[in-house]
Amino acid sequence: DVVMTQTPVSLSVSLGGQVSISCRSSQSLVHNNGNTYLSWYLQKPGQSPQLLIYKVSNRFSGISDRFSGSGSGTDFTLKISRVEPDDLGVYYCGQGTQYPWTFGGGTKLELK
Amino acid sequence: QVQLQQSGAELVKPGSSVKMSCKASGYTFTSYYIYWIKQRPGQGLEWIGRIGPGSGDTNYNEKFKGKATFTVDKSSSTAYMQLSSLTPEDTAVYYCARRGLSYSSLGYWGQGVMVTVSS
């Protein structure tokens, strides 16, 4: 299985600040069709996960442009700018290139 | 709008089975795979597998083969997951989900079913 490693495990941020979360995969996430199926999800307290970013850098419907994804191959980053209270929770990266799909262990974003 | 409505919480005994549902609305049920994800208390996400409601095609995570069984009822646009031979390690929230705009990301999620395995 593809192992997804996220760093850091937790992150403290001031409102209005900027943060980056790293996600590394144990194997390249480039699919045979040329696409890279790396996604980012946010799970707010007590809620189901919600999709933020798909295929490395594409924002899902209704997602603010304060969220941006980048990377390639095995190294990926999620950046959140101008952090708002509603951004707090646990962020997960996930790969859909190989079965079984796998997720990172999560990064908890908290207020400083 | 796309909605996935899951059944209620379950308290079950070790060794028993449980069957949960995921009722889809707001789209053509047979056109999109339904995915199942496990989340143990305070832990991360595990992909259990998926089922294609139109074809009945399934893909299971090897880890959950023999544990989870997916079925669908096209007449009611409902997907089901049965978990068998339950142990305390099966205590978790189970989500159903559907892809969003891309084939390999989960854009729509149910609210989750909390399954507690305890004697």
How much of the polypeptide of chain A forms β-strand, as a percent range? over 45%
* Termini gap of chain A: 36 Å
Number of helices of chain B: 0
Helix content of chain A: under 10%
Q: What Rg of chain A do the Cα atoms give? A: 13 Å
Q: Please state the average pLDDT score of chain A.
A: 97
Write a structural description.
The complex is a heterodimer of chains A (about 110) and B (about 120). The model of chain A has no long low-confidence stretch (mean pLDDT about 95). With about 110 residues, chain A is mostly beta strands. In chain A, about 0% of the residues lie in helices and about 50% in strands. The termini of chain A are far apart. Chain B has no helices and eleven strands. The mean pLDDT of chain B is about 95.
Structure summary:
Chain A is mainly beta and 112 residues long. Chain A has no helices and eleven strands. Chain B starts with a strand and ends with a strand.
Summarize the topology.
The complex is a heterodimer of chains A (112) and B (119).
Chain A: E1 4-7, E2 10-13, E3 19-25, E4 38-43, E5 50-54, E6 58-59, E7 67-72, E8 75-80, E9 89-95, E10 102-103, E11 107-111
Parallel strand pairs in A: 2-11
Antiparallel strand pairs in A: 1-3, 3-8, 4-5, 4-9, 5-6, 7-8, 9-10, 9-11
Chain B: E1 3-6, E2 10-12, E3 18-25, E4 34-39, E5 45-51, E6 58-60, E7 68-73, E8 78-83, E9 92-99, E10 106-109, E11 113-117
Parallel strand pairs in B: 2-11
Antiparallel strand pairs in B: 1-3, 3-8, 4-5, 4-9, 5-6, 7-8, 9-10, 9-11
Search tags:
heterodimer; A: 112 residues; mainly beta; 7-stranded mixed sheet; 4-stranded antiparallel sheet; 11 strands; 0% helix; 48% strand; B: 119 residues
